[in-house]
Design goal:
The structure holds two protein chains of two kinds. Chain A is an alpha/beta fold. Chain A is built from eleven helices and 13 strands. Chain A has helices at residues 35-47, 85-89, 134-148, 176-187, 206-219, 244-251, 269-273, 281-288, 293-395, 398-403, 420-424; strands at 52-63, 67-74, 77-84, 99-110, 119-132, 166-171, 193-198, 225-229, 257-260, 276-277, 408-410, 429-433, 436-440. Chain A has a five-stranded mixed beta barrel. A five-stranded parallel beta sheet of chain A has the order 7-6-8-9-10, with helices on both faces. Chain B has one domain. The chains are: A alpha/beta, B mainly alpha. Chain A binds chain B through residues 159, 161-165, 168, 182, 185, 189-198, 213, 216-217, 220, 289, 291, 293, 296-297, 299-300, 303-304, 306-308, 310-311, 314-315, 318, and chain B through 7-9, 12, 15-16, 18-19, 22-23, 27, 29, 32-33, 36, 39-40, 43, 46-47, 49-50, 52-62, 65-66, 69.
Chain lengths: 444, 76
Protein backbone atom coordinates (compact mmCIF):
# COMPACT_ATOMS: atom_id res chain seq x y z
CA UNK A 1 0.00 0.00 0.00
CA UNK A 2 1.47 3.27 -1.03
CA UNK A 3 -0.86 5.62 0.74
CA UNK A 4 1.03 6.00 3.99
CA UNK A 5 0.53 9.72 4.15
CA UNK A 6 -3.07 10.10 5.22
CA UNK A 7 -4.80 13.42 4.74
CA UNK A 8 -6.31 15.09 7.74
CA UNK A 9 -9.49 13.49 8.93
CA UNK A 10 -10.77 16.65 10.47
CA UNK A 11 -14.21 17.25 9.05
CA UNK A 12 -14.91 20.43 7.27
CA UNK A 13 -16.19 22.86 9.88
CA UNK A 14 -19.92 22.95 9.92
CA UNK A 15 -22.33 25.27 11.59
CA UNK A 16 -22.51 24.77 15.30
CA UNK A 17 -24.69 21.84 16.12
CA UNK A 18 -27.02 22.23 19.00
CA UNK A 19 -25.95 20.01 21.88
CA UNK A 20 -22.25 19.91 20.92
CA UNK A 21 -20.25 19.63 24.19
CA UNK A 22 -17.24 21.74 24.99
CA UNK A 23 -13.86 20.28 24.07
CA UNK A 24 -11.18 19.02 26.45
CA UNK A 25 -9.65 22.08 28.15
CA UNK A 26 -6.12 22.71 27.07
CA UNK A 27 -6.24 20.34 24.09
CA UNK A 28 -4.75 21.57 20.83
CA UNK A 29 -6.77 19.13 18.76
CA UNK A 30 -9.72 20.23 16.65
CA UNK A 31 -13.25 19.25 17.51
CA UNK A 32 -15.09 17.82 19.19
CA UNK A 33 -16.79 16.46 16.06
CA UNK A 34 -19.95 14.32 16.01
CA UNK A 35 -18.83 10.72 15.62
CA UNK A 36 -21.07 10.03 12.65
CA UNK A 37 -19.53 12.93 10.81
CA UNK A 38 -16.06 11.67 11.65
CA UNK A 39 -16.95 8.07 10.64
CA UNK A 40 -18.29 9.23 7.30
CA UNK A 41 -15.07 11.14 6.74
CA UNK A 42 -13.05 8.06 7.67
CA UNK A 43 -14.97 5.96 5.15
CA UNK A 44 -14.16 8.46 2.50
CA UNK A 45 -10.48 8.32 3.39
CA UNK A 46 -10.35 4.52 3.46
CA UNK A 47 -12.11 4.26 0.15
CA UNK A 48 -9.48 6.59 -1.21
CA UNK A 49 -6.74 4.01 -0.58
CA UNK A 50 -5.33 2.33 -3.67
CA UNK A 51 -7.01 -0.82 -4.80
CA UNK A 52 -4.60 -3.77 -4.63
CA UNK A 53 -4.31 -7.58 -4.80
CA UNK A 54 -3.90 -9.44 -1.49
CA UNK A 55 -3.30 -13.15 -1.00
CA UNK A 56 -3.75 -15.45 2.00
CA UNK A 57 -5.92 -18.28 3.30
CA UNK A 58 -9.66 -18.09 3.63
CA UNK A 59 -11.05 -18.58 7.13
CA UNK A 60 -14.41 -18.26 8.78
CA UNK A 61 -16.34 -17.94 5.52
CA UNK A 62 -19.96 -17.00 6.20
CA UNK A 63 -22.82 -15.79 4.06
CA UNK A 64 -25.48 -13.15 4.55
CA UNK A 65 -28.40 -12.22 2.40
CA UNK A 66 -26.55 -9.46 0.52
CA UNK A 67 -22.91 -9.97 1.43
CA UNK A 68 -20.37 -12.72 2.11
CA UNK A 69 -17.67 -12.31 4.76
CA UNK A 70 -14.42 -14.10 5.37
CA UNK A 71 -10.94 -13.44 6.62
CA UNK A 72 -7.67 -13.67 4.75
CA UNK A 73 -4.89 -14.91 6.98
CA UNK A 74 -1.26 -15.82 6.91
CA UNK A 75 1.26 -16.30 9.68
CA UNK A 76 1.85 -12.55 10.09
CA UNK A 77 -1.63 -11.08 10.03
CA UNK A 78 -5.23 -11.12 8.92
CA UNK A 79 -7.69 -8.95 7.05
CA UNK A 80 -11.48 -8.97 7.32
CA UNK A 81 -12.95 -9.22 3.82
CA UNK A 82 -16.40 -8.85 2.34
CA UNK A 83 -17.96 -9.43 -1.09
CA UNK A 84 -21.26 -8.57 -2.60
CA UNK A 85 -23.32 -11.71 -2.82
CA UNK A 86 -23.71 -11.26 -6.56
CA UNK A 87 -19.91 -11.11 -7.10
CA UNK A 88 -19.42 -14.14 -4.86
CA UNK A 89 -22.02 -16.24 -6.66
CA UNK A 90 -20.40 -15.32 -9.97
CA UNK A 91 -17.07 -16.90 -8.98
CA UNK A 92 -15.94 -19.80 -11.18
CA UNK A 93 -15.28 -22.05 -8.15
CA UNK A 94 -16.90 -21.78 -4.76
CA UNK A 95 -14.69 -20.61 -1.90
CA UNK A 96 -14.17 -22.62 1.26
CA UNK A 97 -12.22 -22.34 4.50
CA UNK A 98 -8.54 -23.10 4.14
CA UNK A 99 -8.24 -22.17 0.49
CA UNK A 100 -5.31 -20.07 -0.57
CA UNK A 101 -6.62 -17.24 -2.72
CA UNK A 102 -5.60 -14.00 -4.37
CA UNK A 103 -8.17 -11.25 -3.95
CA UNK A 104 -8.51 -7.88 -5.59
CA UNK A 105 -10.24 -4.94 -3.95
CA UNK A 106 -9.86 -2.03 -1.61
CA UNK A 107 -10.53 -0.81 1.89
CA UNK A 108 -14.06 0.03 2.92
CA UNK A 109 -15.71 1.16 6.10
CA UNK A 110 -19.29 1.00 7.23
CA UNK A 111 -19.74 3.91 9.59
CA UNK A 112 -22.59 2.32 11.56
CA UNK A 113 -25.29 4.27 13.35
CA UNK A 114 -26.94 4.62 16.75
CA UNK A 115 -28.37 1.11 16.28
CA UNK A 116 -25.65 -0.58 14.14
CA UNK A 117 -22.00 -1.34 14.79
CA UNK A 118 -19.34 0.02 12.46
CA UNK A 119 -17.21 -2.43 10.51
CA UNK A 120 -14.01 -2.25 8.54
CA UNK A 121 -13.47 -4.66 5.66
CA UNK A 122 -11.44 -5.18 2.53
CA UNK A 123 -14.07 -5.06 -0.18
CA UNK A 124 -13.22 -7.89 -2.58
CA UNK A 125 -14.28 -7.60 -6.16
CA UNK A 126 -12.35 -10.51 -7.72
CA UNK A 127 -10.92 -13.81 -6.46
CA UNK A 128 -8.51 -16.37 -7.86
CA UNK A 129 -8.08 -19.67 -6.02
CA UNK A 130 -4.35 -20.30 -5.58
CA UNK A 131 -4.36 -23.71 -3.88
CA UNK A 132 -4.79 -25.56 -0.62
CA UNK A 133 -4.02 -23.54 2.49
CA UNK A 134 -0.62 -24.02 4.05
CA UNK A 135 -1.92 -23.78 7.60
CA UNK A 136 -4.55 -26.47 7.04
CA UNK A 137 -1.97 -28.64 5.30
CA UNK A 138 0.39 -28.24 8.28
CA UNK A 139 -2.46 -29.11 10.60
CA UNK A 140 -3.23 -32.22 8.61
CA UNK A 141 0.43 -33.29 8.67
CA UNK A 142 0.59 -32.85 12.43
CA UNK A 143 -2.66 -34.80 12.86
CA UNK A 144 -1.20 -37.71 10.89
CA UNK A 145 2.06 -37.58 12.89
CA UNK A 146 0.29 -37.64 16.26
CA UNK A 147 -1.95 -40.44 15.07
CA UNK A 148 1.02 -42.45 13.80
CA UNK A 149 2.69 -42.04 17.21
CA UNK A 150 -0.40 -43.50 18.84
CA UNK A 151 -1.17 -40.31 20.75
CA UNK A 152 -4.89 -40.44 19.93
CA UNK A 153 -5.21 -43.56 22.08
CA UNK A 154 -3.91 -43.02 25.67
CA UNK A 155 -6.63 -40.61 26.75
CA UNK A 156 -9.34 -42.86 25.35
CA UNK A 157 -8.09 -45.70 27.50
CA UNK A 158 -8.62 -43.70 30.68
CA UNK A 159 -11.84 -44.49 32.49
CA UNK A 160 -14.18 -41.52 32.76
CA UNK A 161 -15.56 -41.56 36.30
CA UNK A 162 -19.35 -41.73 36.51
CA UNK A 163 -19.39 -39.43 39.52
CA UNK A 164 -16.31 -37.23 39.80
CA UNK A 165 -15.90 -35.38 43.09
CA UNK A 166 -13.62 -32.71 41.66
CA UNK A 167 -13.66 -31.31 38.11
CA UNK A 168 -11.04 -29.01 36.61
CA UNK A 169 -12.14 -26.56 33.92
CA UNK A 170 -9.84 -24.68 31.57
CA UNK A 171 -11.61 -21.75 29.94
CA UNK A 172 -11.60 -18.00 29.55
CA UNK A 173 -12.68 -16.00 32.56
CA UNK A 174 -16.10 -14.45 32.09
CA UNK A 175 -16.72 -16.46 28.92
CA UNK A 176 -20.01 -17.92 27.83
CA UNK A 177 -18.32 -21.32 27.89
CA UNK A 178 -17.91 -20.95 31.66
CA UNK A 179 -21.63 -20.31 32.08
CA UNK A 180 -22.43 -23.25 29.80
CA UNK A 181 -20.25 -25.59 31.87
CA UNK A 182 -22.06 -24.48 35.03
CA UNK A 183 -25.42 -24.98 33.30
CA UNK A 184 -24.44 -28.52 32.25
CA UNK A 185 -23.35 -29.39 35.79
CA UNK A 186 -26.56 -27.94 37.24
CA UNK A 187 -28.55 -30.05 34.80
CA UNK A 188 -26.82 -33.13 36.23
CA UNK A 189 -27.60 -32.01 39.78
CA UNK A 190 -23.86 -32.03 40.44
CA UNK A 191 -22.54 -29.73 43.15
CA UNK A 192 -19.05 -30.92 44.00
CA UNK A 193 -15.70 -29.14 43.84
CA UNK A 194 -14.85 -27.16 40.70
CA UNK A 195 -11.36 -25.86 40.03
CA UNK A 196 -11.29 -23.09 37.43
CA UNK A 197 -8.17 -22.47 35.39
CA UNK A 198 -8.82 -19.20 33.59
CA UNK A 199 -6.60 -18.70 30.54
CA UNK A 200 -6.64 -16.83 27.23
CA UNK A 201 -8.14 -19.12 24.62
CA UNK A 202 -7.53 -17.58 21.22
CA UNK A 203 -4.37 -15.56 20.88
CA UNK A 204 -0.73 -16.64 20.66
CA UNK A 205 -0.56 -16.92 24.46
CA UNK A 206 -3.40 -19.41 24.55
CA UNK A 207 -1.60 -22.69 23.80
CA UNK A 208 1.18 -22.36 26.44
CA UNK A 209 -1.33 -21.09 29.01
CA UNK A 210 -3.75 -23.95 28.36
CA UNK A 211 -0.87 -26.45 28.46
CA UNK A 212 0.36 -25.09 31.80
CA UNK A 213 -3.15 -25.08 33.28
CA UNK A 214 -3.72 -28.68 32.22
CA UNK A 215 -0.43 -29.78 33.76
CA UNK A 216 -1.24 -27.98 37.04
CA UNK A 217 -4.75 -29.49 37.19
CA UNK A 218 -3.43 -32.97 36.46
CA UNK A 219 -0.90 -32.53 39.27
CA UNK A 220 -3.75 -32.08 41.75
CA UNK A 221 -4.57 -35.55 42.99
CA UNK A 222 -8.17 -34.70 43.76
CA UNK A 223 -9.01 -33.68 40.18
CA UNK A 224 -10.89 -36.57 38.55
CA UNK A 225 -11.55 -35.09 35.12
CA UNK A 226 -10.70 -31.90 33.21
CA UNK A 227 -12.85 -29.96 30.77
CA UNK A 228 -11.24 -27.64 28.19
CA UNK A 229 -14.03 -25.34 27.06
CA UNK A 230 -14.28 -22.58 24.52
CA UNK A 231 -17.19 -21.33 22.49
CA UNK A 232 -17.32 -21.85 18.75
CA UNK A 233 -15.21 -19.76 16.43
CA UNK A 234 -13.41 -19.87 13.17
CA UNK A 235 -10.80 -22.55 12.70
CA UNK A 236 -8.18 -19.80 12.71
CA UNK A 237 -9.29 -18.74 16.19
CA UNK A 238 -9.10 -22.37 17.29
CA UNK A 239 -5.53 -22.92 16.07
CA UNK A 240 -4.28 -22.57 19.62
CA UNK A 241 -5.93 -25.92 20.33
CA UNK A 242 -4.02 -27.54 17.47
CA UNK A 243 -0.63 -26.61 18.88
CA UNK A 244 1.71 -29.58 18.99
CA UNK A 245 3.04 -29.24 22.57
CA UNK A 246 -0.47 -28.75 23.92
CA UNK A 247 -1.76 -31.83 22.09
CA UNK A 248 1.17 -34.01 23.17
CA UNK A 249 0.65 -32.85 26.78
CA UNK A 250 -3.05 -33.68 26.70
CA UNK A 251 -2.38 -37.11 25.20
CA UNK A 252 -0.12 -38.08 28.08
CA UNK A 253 -2.05 -36.61 31.04
CA UNK A 254 -3.14 -39.01 33.80
CA UNK A 255 -6.62 -37.53 34.05
CA UNK A 256 -9.19 -37.75 31.26
CA UNK A 257 -9.63 -34.52 29.31
CA UNK A 258 -12.96 -33.61 27.73
CA UNK A 259 -12.50 -31.11 24.93
CA UNK A 260 -15.13 -28.66 23.82
CA UNK A 261 -13.36 -25.96 21.87
CA UNK A 262 -15.26 -25.64 18.65
CA UNK A 263 -18.09 -27.40 16.97
CA UNK A 264 -18.48 -30.29 14.62
CA UNK A 265 -17.34 -28.38 11.54
CA UNK A 266 -14.15 -27.19 13.24
CA UNK A 267 -12.33 -30.25 14.50
CA UNK A 268 -9.15 -29.29 16.31
CA UNK A 269 -6.28 -31.58 17.23
CA UNK A 270 -7.16 -31.45 20.92
CA UNK A 271 -10.46 -33.06 19.93
CA UNK A 272 -8.46 -35.96 18.51
CA UNK A 273 -6.12 -36.52 21.43
CA UNK A 274 -8.62 -35.92 24.24
CA UNK A 275 -10.55 -38.70 25.95
CA UNK A 276 -13.77 -37.23 24.63
CA UNK A 277 -14.74 -34.42 22.30
CA UNK A 278 -18.02 -32.58 22.75
CA UNK A 279 -19.74 -30.06 20.54
CA UNK A 280 -20.60 -27.63 23.33
CA UNK A 281 -19.32 -26.83 26.84
CA UNK A 282 -22.75 -27.86 28.20
CA UNK A 283 -22.36 -31.29 26.65
CA UNK A 284 -18.81 -31.48 27.96
CA UNK A 285 -20.07 -30.83 31.50
CA UNK A 286 -22.74 -33.48 31.09
CA UNK A 287 -20.15 -35.92 29.75
CA UNK A 288 -17.92 -35.18 32.75
CA UNK A 289 -20.78 -36.22 35.04
CA UNK A 290 -22.55 -39.01 33.15
CA UNK A 291 -24.76 -39.69 36.14
CA UNK A 292 -27.80 -37.56 36.84
CA UNK A 293 -27.28 -37.14 40.56
CA UNK A 294 -30.99 -36.73 41.36
CA UNK A 295 -31.91 -39.86 39.44
CA UNK A 296 -28.94 -41.69 40.95
CA UNK A 297 -30.14 -40.84 44.48
CA UNK A 298 -33.61 -42.20 43.73
CA UNK A 299 -32.11 -45.26 42.12
CA UNK A 300 -29.82 -45.89 45.07
CA UNK A 301 -32.76 -45.53 47.45
CA UNK A 302 -34.69 -48.07 45.41
CA UNK A 303 -31.71 -50.46 45.34
CA UNK A 304 -31.25 -50.14 49.10
CA UNK A 305 -34.95 -50.89 49.66
CA UNK A 306 -34.80 -53.94 47.41
CA UNK A 307 -31.70 -55.14 49.18
CA UNK A 308 -33.34 -54.86 52.62
CA UNK A 309 -36.53 -56.46 51.34
CA UNK A 310 -34.60 -59.35 49.82
CA UNK A 311 -32.61 -59.81 53.03
CA UNK A 312 -35.77 -59.90 55.17
CA UNK A 313 -37.54 -62.19 52.72
CA UNK A 314 -34.64 -64.62 52.68
CA UNK A 315 -34.68 -64.84 56.48
CA UNK A 316 -38.48 -65.12 56.70
CA UNK A 317 -38.68 -67.77 54.01
CA UNK A 318 -36.07 -69.84 55.75
CA UNK A 319 -37.71 -69.39 59.14
CA UNK A 320 -40.99 -70.60 57.66
CA UNK A 321 -39.21 -73.54 56.02
CA UNK A 322 -37.59 -74.36 59.35
CA UNK A 323 -40.96 -74.26 61.11
CA UNK A 324 -42.38 -76.54 58.43
CA UNK A 325 -39.49 -78.95 58.97
CA UNK A 326 -39.99 -78.84 62.75
CA UNK A 327 -43.63 -79.79 62.32
CA UNK A 328 -42.84 -82.47 59.76
CA UNK A 329 -42.35 -85.53 62.05
CA UNK A 330 -45.67 -84.95 63.88
CA UNK A 331 -47.39 -84.34 60.57
CA UNK A 332 -45.84 -87.49 59.25
CA UNK A 333 -47.13 -89.57 62.17
CA UNK A 334 -50.57 -87.98 61.82
CA UNK A 335 -50.63 -88.81 58.16
CA UNK A 336 -49.66 -92.40 58.85
CA UNK A 337 -52.20 -92.67 61.66
CA UNK A 338 -54.94 -91.49 59.35
CA UNK A 339 -53.74 -93.85 56.70
CA UNK A 340 -53.72 -96.75 59.16
CA UNK A 341 -57.18 -95.86 60.35
CA UNK A 342 -58.40 -95.88 56.82
CA UNK A 343 -56.73 -99.18 56.12
CA UNK A 344 -58.34 -100.67 59.29
CA UNK A 345 -61.73 -99.53 58.13
CA UNK A 346 -61.13 -100.98 54.73
CA UNK A 347 -59.89 -104.23 56.28
CA UNK A 348 -62.98 -104.58 58.44
CA UNK A 349 -65.18 -103.90 55.48
CA UNK A 350 -63.22 -106.40 53.46
CA UNK A 351 -63.51 -109.04 56.20
CA UNK A 352 -67.23 -108.46 56.37
CA UNK A 353 -67.49 -108.80 52.61
CA UNK A 354 -65.32 -111.99 52.66
CA UNK A 355 -67.29 -113.56 55.54
CA UNK A 356 -70.53 -112.96 53.76
CA UNK A 357 -69.11 -114.52 50.62
CA UNK A 358 -67.69 -117.46 52.54
CA UNK A 359 -71.02 -117.98 54.30
CA UNK A 360 -72.75 -118.06 50.98
CA UNK A 361 -70.17 -120.47 49.64
CA UNK A 362 -70.50 -122.71 52.85
CA UNK A 363 -74.23 -122.85 52.49
CA UNK A 364 -73.80 -123.85 48.88
CA UNK A 365 -71.15 -126.44 49.82
CA UNK A 366 -73.41 -127.83 52.55
CA UNK A 367 -76.12 -128.33 49.97
CA UNK A 368 -73.61 -130.04 47.71
CA UNK A 369 -72.39 -132.22 50.61
CA UNK A 370 -75.87 -133.17 51.55
CA UNK A 371 -76.46 -134.27 48.04
CA UNK A 372 -73.13 -136.11 47.98
CA UNK A 373 -74.04 -137.99 51.34
CA UNK A 374 -76.80 -140.07 49.74
CA UNK A 375 -74.48 -141.04 46.89
CA UNK A 376 -71.90 -142.37 49.45
CA UNK A 377 -74.43 -144.77 50.99
CA UNK A 378 -75.05 -146.32 47.59
CA UNK A 379 -71.32 -146.66 47.03
CA UNK A 380 -70.82 -148.42 50.43
CA UNK A 381 -73.53 -150.84 49.65
CA UNK A 382 -71.95 -151.57 46.31
CA UNK A 383 -68.59 -152.05 47.96
CA UNK A 384 -69.98 -154.60 50.42
CA UNK A 385 -71.59 -156.51 47.55
CA UNK A 386 -68.30 -156.49 45.75
CA UNK A 387 -66.51 -157.90 48.82
CA UNK A 388 -69.06 -160.67 49.03
CA UNK A 389 -68.61 -161.49 45.38
CA UNK A 390 -64.84 -161.35 45.84
CA UNK A 391 -65.11 -163.91 48.68
CA UNK A 392 -67.34 -166.11 46.66
CA UNK A 393 -65.01 -165.91 43.78
CA UNK A 394 -62.03 -166.71 46.08
CA UNK A 395 -63.71 -169.89 47.21
CA UNK A 396 -63.48 -171.12 43.66
CA UNK A 397 -59.83 -170.08 43.18
CA UNK A 398 -57.69 -173.22 42.25
CA UNK A 399 -54.84 -171.65 44.18
CA UNK A 400 -56.91 -171.95 47.36
CA UNK A 401 -57.37 -175.70 46.52
CA UNK A 402 -53.67 -176.16 45.98
CA UNK A 403 -53.01 -174.47 49.35
CA UNK A 404 -55.30 -177.02 50.99
CA UNK A 405 -53.12 -179.92 49.62
CA UNK A 406 -54.66 -180.57 46.26
CA UNK A 407 -52.38 -180.81 43.17
CA UNK A 408 -53.13 -179.99 39.58
CA UNK A 409 -51.80 -182.38 36.90
CA UNK A 410 -50.67 -180.68 33.72
CA UNK A 411 -48.95 -181.83 30.57
CA UNK A 412 -45.87 -180.11 29.16
CA UNK A 413 -47.93 -177.51 27.50
CA UNK A 414 -49.74 -176.62 30.77
CA UNK A 415 -53.04 -178.19 29.78
CA UNK A 416 -54.77 -180.01 32.70
CA UNK A 417 -54.76 -183.82 32.59
CA UNK A 418 -57.89 -184.97 34.23
CA UNK A 419 -58.01 -188.84 33.72
CA UNK A 420 -55.68 -191.65 34.26
CA UNK A 421 -55.74 -192.92 30.73
CA UNK A 422 -54.62 -189.61 29.46
CA UNK A 423 -51.95 -189.52 32.12
CA UNK A 424 -50.59 -192.98 31.21
CA UNK A 425 -50.10 -191.84 27.68
CA UNK A 426 -47.75 -189.11 28.68
CA UNK A 427 -44.05 -189.44 29.10
CA UNK A 428 -43.91 -186.67 31.67
CA UNK A 429 -46.43 -184.80 33.75
CA UNK A 430 -46.22 -181.68 35.90
CA UNK A 431 -47.72 -181.65 39.40
CA UNK A 432 -48.65 -178.06 40.19
CA UNK A 433 -48.77 -177.42 43.93
CA UNK A 434 -49.37 -174.26 45.96
CA UNK A 435 -45.71 -173.21 45.86
CA UNK A 436 -44.61 -174.47 42.42
CA UNK A 437 -44.60 -177.28 39.82
CA UNK A 438 -43.02 -180.79 40.18
CA UNK A 439 -42.22 -182.89 37.05
CA UNK A 440 -43.16 -186.56 37.41
CA UNK A 441 -43.11 -189.70 35.15
CA UNK A 442 -46.11 -191.98 35.23
CA UNK A 443 -45.39 -195.69 35.75
CA UNK A 444 -47.00 -197.93 33.20
CA UNK B 1 -12.13 -55.18 46.54
CA UNK B 2 -12.42 -52.50 49.27
CA UNK B 3 -14.50 -49.32 49.17
CA UNK B 4 -11.36 -47.22 48.96
CA UNK B 5 -10.37 -48.76 45.64
CA UNK B 6 -13.71 -49.08 43.89
CA UNK B 7 -15.46 -46.44 41.86
CA UNK B 8 -19.06 -45.30 42.13
CA UNK B 9 -20.02 -47.05 38.89
CA UNK B 10 -18.33 -50.31 39.95
CA UNK B 11 -20.16 -50.19 43.27
CA UNK B 12 -23.51 -49.55 41.56
CA UNK B 13 -22.86 -52.41 39.15
CA UNK B 14 -22.03 -54.75 42.04
CA UNK B 15 -25.22 -53.78 43.91
CA UNK B 16 -27.27 -54.58 40.79
CA UNK B 17 -25.46 -57.90 40.53
CA UNK B 18 -26.18 -58.71 44.18
CA UNK B 19 -29.86 -57.92 43.78
CA UNK B 20 -30.08 -60.08 40.66
CA UNK B 21 -28.50 -62.93 42.60
CA UNK B 22 -30.91 -62.45 45.50
CA UNK B 23 -33.88 -62.18 43.12
CA UNK B 24 -32.92 -65.48 41.52
CA UNK B 25 -33.57 -67.25 44.84
CA UNK B 26 -30.57 -69.49 44.23
CA UNK B 27 -28.44 -68.08 47.02
CA UNK B 28 -28.24 -70.07 50.23
CA UNK B 29 -28.83 -68.49 53.62
CA UNK B 30 -25.19 -67.83 54.39
CA UNK B 31 -24.57 -66.40 50.93
CA UNK B 32 -27.72 -64.27 51.22
CA UNK B 33 -26.58 -62.80 54.50
CA UNK B 34 -23.12 -62.11 53.14
CA UNK B 35 -24.55 -60.52 49.97
CA UNK B 36 -26.88 -58.32 52.02
CA UNK B 37 -24.00 -57.21 54.19
CA UNK B 38 -21.82 -56.44 51.16
CA UNK B 39 -24.74 -54.67 49.46
CA UNK B 40 -25.36 -52.48 52.50
CA UNK B 41 -21.70 -51.47 52.59
CA UNK B 42 -21.78 -50.57 48.89
CA UNK B 43 -25.02 -48.59 49.25
CA UNK B 44 -23.41 -46.61 52.04
CA UNK B 45 -20.36 -46.02 49.86
CA UNK B 46 -22.49 -44.81 46.92
CA UNK B 47 -24.60 -42.64 49.21
CA UNK B 48 -21.36 -41.09 50.49
CA UNK B 49 -20.21 -40.38 46.94
CA UNK B 50 -23.55 -38.77 46.06
CA UNK B 51 -23.46 -36.81 49.28
CA UNK B 52 -19.99 -35.50 48.36
CA UNK B 53 -21.34 -33.99 45.12
CA UNK B 54 -24.55 -32.73 46.66
CA UNK B 55 -23.34 -30.49 49.46
CA UNK B 56 -23.18 -27.40 47.23
CA UNK B 57 -20.91 -26.25 44.45
CA UNK B 58 -17.46 -25.27 45.71
CA UNK B 59 -15.65 -23.11 43.17
CA UNK B 60 -11.90 -22.64 43.44
CA UNK B 61 -9.40 -20.93 41.19
CA UNK B 62 -6.43 -23.00 40.13
CA UNK B 63 -3.93 -20.22 40.88
CA UNK B 64 -5.26 -19.76 44.39
CA UNK B 65 -5.41 -23.49 45.01
CA UNK B 66 -1.85 -24.04 43.81
CA UNK B 67 -0.63 -21.10 45.90
CA UNK B 68 -2.44 -22.49 48.94
CA UNK B 69 -0.92 -25.94 48.42
CA UNK B 70 2.55 -24.48 48.01
CA UNK B 71 2.13 -22.47 51.22
CA UNK B 72 1.05 -25.60 53.03
CA UNK B 73 4.03 -27.53 51.64
CA UNK B 74 6.42 -24.73 52.65
CA UNK B 75 4.93 -24.61 56.17
CA UNK B 76 5.36 -28.38 56.49
Amino acid sequence: MSDHHEPSLSPTPTPATSGRPDGIPGSDLTGPWPVGQYAARLRGRLRGFSHVQVFGEVFNLRSGRARVWFELRDERGALPCSMWRGDFDALAAPLSDGQRVVTAGGCDFYPGSRTASPAFSFAVTEVRVAGEGDLLAQLDRLRRTLHAEGLFTPQKQLALPALPRCIGVVTAEGSKARDDVLAGLRRRGWAGRLVWAFVPVQDRHAAPAVTGALQDLAALEEVDVVIVARGGGSLADLFAFCEETLCRTVALLRVPVIASVGHHTDRTLIDDVAALSCSTPTHAAEAAVPVDCGVARQRLHSLASRLERQGRRAILERARALARLARAPADHVDRHRAHLHQQSRELRASVRRTMAGEERRAVAAAGVLARRGSAATVAARRSRELDRLRLALGAHDPQRMLERGYALVEDDSGEPVSNVADARGRERLMLRMSDGALPVRPES
Amino acid sequence: MTESTISYETACGRIEEIIRRLDSGDAGLRETLELCQEGRRLVEFCAGELEAVGRGLEELKLDELVARLEEGRAAA
